[in-house]
Every structure is written in C-alpha cells, then in structure tokens.
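Input sequence (393 aa), recorded before submission:
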Amino acid sequence: MRKINRRKFLYCSAAVLSSAMPFCSFWPFAGTDSEASGSVDIRGRIFKGGAPAKLWKWSHEGFFYTKLKDNKVVCGICPNRCILAPGDLSVCRSKVNIGGTLYSLTYGNPCSLHVDPIEKKPLFHFKPRTTAFSIATTGCNFRCLNCQNWEISQVKPHQVRHYELFPRDVVVKAQSAGAKSIAYTYSEPTTFFEYMIDIARIAREEGIYNLWISNGYINRKPLLELCKVLDAANVNLKSYSDAIYRKLNGGRLEPVLNTFKTLREQGVHFEMTNLVVPGYVDDPDMVKKMCGWILDNLGTDYPLHFLRFFPKYKLDRLAPTPVSTLTRFRKLAMQEGIRYVYVGNVPGHEGNNTYCHNCGKLLVERKGYLIPTYNLVGNKCKFCNSIIPGVWA
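Predicted structure, token format:
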C-alpha cells in the first residue's frame, strides 16, 4: 500500500498548483459509461505517514482510477475521463497525479459549511420542514457560463479559505446543528467524491440522511457505489439538447440522462431542476421533448422544478427569465403528464406549492422556506387519501 505523509503531499501538490505544467489532457467524448478495466477501488485508501496522525493529519488517494503507462492515470469518476501525466490537474481541479498515483485535493478541506432548510436544495418531496447541513469544496467538472457559485466551483482548492474537517467531524457537526441530513452541494460534489462518500457512509451509520445536489455528470460505477448510502438527490437537467450542454455547460446530455435512469433503478428519491436561461433553455419545443423523455423513462411522479435565471458570471448581460415563461413551462409540463411541477426563484408564485394530483387541493403551502400550510397525513393527501410520491414522514 502506497503511503504519503501530509507534509510531503502538501509540498508536492503545492508544486503542481504553482507550476506551468499543462492543465490536463482528457477524452472529451469517450465512449459510454463503461469503465476501463481495473479502474474500480470502492474501498478507498487513507494514508498516514510514519509520524503520529495528529502531526501529519491525512492525505487521500483517489477512487475509481486506472494506472497507465509512463506513470499516467485516467480518472474514472466522471465522463470527462481525464488522462493525467505526473503533475497534471483534472478538469475539475480537484485531482492531481503525483508520481503515478491519483490524489484528491479536496479531501477534508471544505470551503463552505451552512445549515439550510431542505427546501432550499430544492427538495420539496423529501422530509419537509427539516434542515440539512450543507457542505462543499472547490471544483466542478462543468464550465457553465451561468454558474451561480463560480467563486468556489471554478477555482483551485488553494485559492479559497477552507476548513480542516474530516468525515467523522462533519457528521458530528451535523448532529450538533440538529440537521436531519447532510447535503453535498453548492459546487459539484462529484468532484469531491472520495470525501463525500466517506462522510455519507458514517452518516448512514448514525441515522443521518445523505443528499446529493448535483449536475449528474458521473459514471455509472461510482454512482452505484454512492447510491448505497444516498437517500435523495436533486439533479440539474440543464437542457434537453446536447449542443446546448456543450455550449452552455461544457458537458454532454446523455450521461446526465443515464444518471436519472440509475437513480430510478436504485430506488433513490430524486427531483429534477431546470434553470431556464433566456436564449439557451427557453424553447417550448425543447421543454416538451424533455418532458416526453421524462415520462417515457422515469414516469409521472418525479418532481420537476423550473428555476428563474438571474444574470451571473459570464452571462451577466442577459435579463432574468420572465416569470410568464416559467408559468407557461409549468403548465406545459403538467399538460404533458408530469404530476408535480414547480417554479423556483419567484416568491409567492403558486408553483411554489404542492397540490394533490388527484383532487387538486393544496397540500403544502410554501412562503419562502416556511411552510404555513401542511395537509398531508403520512404520505397521503388529507382530503382524498391519495398517495403522494416522496419521503414525507
């Protein structure tokens, strides 16, 4: 088993981060979700140096990667499949090749911690009126022009202030805060997969729920391993166009669609978010096709959230999404057959609320993140006794 102490790891990674070496090389459109032979290491490996742990702390080898010739490695976490020579960083800026071994740069050093209402994720059909301990590190495997959290998602770990917080400490903090869940969120948690799944395993043992708030750009084998400890997810379906995914987000559509199929197959509760970016994602025909795919592959009962866009990052020239567009898309999706469709980032809109798909009565009224009206008994409508999909009790 390869060992590396904290001092050596930090020295090597600092040299990499400050060097002028190539950013990375990768297969941008490689194959499907099948993994390269020998790429799976679901156990993970945590290394301590010869000195006491309290002095050297921890460094962590990456999961799901394959060693190649000439000390190169290929990361198997996401469809970018970065091929890294010694010294190279991954597209997400969260992995580095040091001497032919892939290491995570974001293990145990989150840059953002917060306690949020679960409705903020947004998760409207999972444990309403509870709180989630939210955690993020730097990094993202996309390059969204409209990124809402670009200050942490589009930088390297050493470029922001961070906490030293290892997995068990995260769970302890969540318990101290009275949070029922831990949400891996804000940036892209797939890029801190090793850290996330180690936290999630401990959280599961302690009876705390795990929430994955993600762009869904992950390969099947890591996702299957994550699903073993995952309770709910909100995945951002950024558009239903591969061309727009490439232009707006720097990714591809098909792997995200595959993620939805896997979550459904594994019985994980999930909700879908579509940020309606003017000029990119505001085409009614595309929304209709998207709804058709959802109905054909996932069914009627997974909630869909249309979110209002506000000018951010590299799209600060655009106007906010007209509320009328969101209202029209909600109506279109419901007419197509999706039972639970929401409008986000528009306070006071009726699309913030949950209505029974059978009798049409108001079940959950939402005012911001507050819930003044709640008409569910267990998982059933108080008025007509219909089962409402989700995890309510």
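Checked by second reader. Residues 143 and 250 are 5 Å apart (CA to CA).
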